[in-house]
Design a protein that fits this description.
Protein name: Aminotransferase class III-fold pyridoxal phosphate-dependent enzyme
Number of helices: 16
Largest sheet: 7 strands, mixed
Number of strands: 15
CATH topology of the largest domain: Aspartate Aminotransferase, domain 2
GO molecular function, one term: transaminase activity
Keywords: Aminotransferase, Pyridoxal phosphate, Transferase
Pfam families: Aminotran_3
Cofactor: pyridoxal 5'-phosphate
Strand content: 15-25%
CATH architecture of the largest domain: 3-Layer(aba) Sandwich
Distance between the termini: 27 Å
Length: about 450
């Protein structure tokens, strides 16, 4: 076991902190990486090591890791109105201004904004709104919700049920009944020999239709989807996918909810992933880049169809009984609103479009490496698919610990990666420059070379 002095941050962390997504016992031996500062897209730890973060933290640090401008906005907001709630007809300027701005930016016509505190809360709330809507239509039996295998939609009990990753359910007695999962649209892995992307998309849409029919369409309430599937390793959809899926949803009157928590605010090269892929959702959840991760804030955008159901249910029950203490917090909404102003001033979408070709070219070039079978991406999000054999697409066996080896060598090369199963997901801060993308790719290739030298000798 590694020994730390009793008063060091490492020892105090081990003694007091339970870390999410962390092996609890191993953490007692290894201790934490203590981050102490940042400069743009780079972070540094207490040993002086500097890392290029290729994942923007948890997909969220869109403007990097420090901002004097946003810090001042938060300070001024806290001095003016450090807290107030938006329950029971109460409101304040930042909540109103942010809601109006989100409706202005929405990719399809939306009616209202329901402010929340996290992406998980936004998706959890949207599930409640789906059920609320169908109750208002006199169809409470329309309750089942489909999401896609490999998806991630949050960590509450409901949103982890939407999340179609069995390891996230193990030991918790989850998922809840009524949360159903359809195909992950991984063309590289799952297409039939000679099958085009359009044909693959049609096959997945046909499968979804068959599943809806098997469940009875009068029991199916909604379909949940992120434009680029983050939980599957930054996986863009194949050609024609959402058009074919939406045709099925429309046929059976199934609501579509777009989880834009990762993709919203520029990540795909448009303000919303819905714009990139021609999606027409009934609701949109967003978070992360909404405040550049500088404050915990999220939102659900709902169309008029959903809103009118809320009005009817308010008449029936006396109020819309839902809310969180910190939802619409004046400091958080002030920072989010200023973040959106920064995006406009820096011409964020034009910047992303200018860097996108370099991002796709430099990371796509890594497909010549023996460990890489494929790369797919859009905007400033994409993933490398790892293989043992390029011809058969065989995976490395689990006992090799390929992901752990890649993570170790990446950190030795000053690179923080997000490894998701057989994919390495890239979603760097949106301020990344073309030269920084080249540096990212250089460090990635050095990492792959070091790992391949190890595993090829096994």
């Amino acid at each position: 076991m590694t020994h730390f002095s009793a008063n060091s941050p490492h020892a105090r962390d081990i003694a007091s902190v339970l870390h999410p997504q962390t092996h609890a016992g191993r953490h007692q031996e290894l201790g934490p990486t203590i981050m102490t500062g940042a400069d743009g897209i780079f972070v540094r730890d207490d040993a002086g090591n500097v890392f290029l973060d290729a994942g923007a933290g948890l997909w969220c640090a869109s403007l990097g890791y420090n901002s004097e401008r946003l810090a001042k906005v938060a300070y001024d907001a806290m001095r003016t109105l450090g807290y107030y709630q938006i329950f029971r007809h109460a409101s304040h300027g930042p909540a109103i201004d942010l809601s109006e701005k989100l409706l202005e930016l929405a990719p399809v016509p939306m009616s209202k904004v329901l402010l929340q505190c996290s992406g998980s809360e936004a998706n959890d709330t949207a599930v409640k709104l789906v059920w609320y809507y169908w109750h208002a239509q006199g169809k409470p039996e329309k309750r089942k919700i489909f999401s896609r295998r490999g998806s991630y939609h949050g960590s509450t009990c409901v949103t982890i049920s939407l999340t179609a990753k069995p390891d996230y359910h193990a030991g918790f007695g989850l998922p809840f009944d009524g949360f159903l999962h359809t195909d992950c649209p991984n063309y590289y892995r799952d297409a039939l020999p000679g099958e085009t992307e359009e044909a693959f998309s049609q096959r997945l849409a046909d499968t979804l239709e068959a599943q809806i029919m098997a469940e009875d369409p009068e029991t199916v309430a909604a379909f949940w989807c992120d434009p680029v599937q983050g939980g599957a390793g930054a996986l863009p959809p194949p050609r024609g996918y959402f058009q074919k899926i939406q045709a099925v949803l429309k046929k059976y009157d199934v609501l579509m909810v777009a989880d834009e928590v990762i993709c919203g605010f520029g990540r795909t090269g448009a303000m919303w992933g819905c714009e990139t892929y021609g999606m027409q959702p009934d609701m949109i959840s967003c978070a992360k880049a909404l405040s550049a991760a500088m404050q915990p804030v999220s939102a659900v955008l709902l169309n008029e169809r959903i809103y009118q159901a809320v009005v009817r249910q308010s008449d029936k029950y006396g109020a819309f009984i839902h809310g969180y203490t910190y939802a619409g917090h004046p400091v958080c909404t002030s920072v989010a609103l200023e973040t959106l102003r920064i995006y406009e001033e820096m011409d964020l979408i034009d910047h992303i479009k200018s860097v996108e070709p370099v991002f796709l070219r430099e990371l796509g070039a890594l497909t010549d490496h023996p460990l890489v079978g494929d790369f797919s991406g859009v905007g400033l999000i994409g993933g490398l698919e790892l293989v043992r054999d390029k011809a058969t697409k065989e995976n490395w066996p689990g006992e090799v610990g390929l992901g752990a080896r890649i993570d170790q060598h990446a950190r030795a090369n000053g690179l923080i990666l997000r490894i998701v199963g057989n994919r390495i997901a890239f979603s760097p801060p949106l301020i990344i420059t073309a030269e920084e993308v080249r540096e990212l790719a250089r460090r990635m290739r050095a990492t792959l070379d070091a790992v391949y030298a190890e595993v090829s000798a096994l």
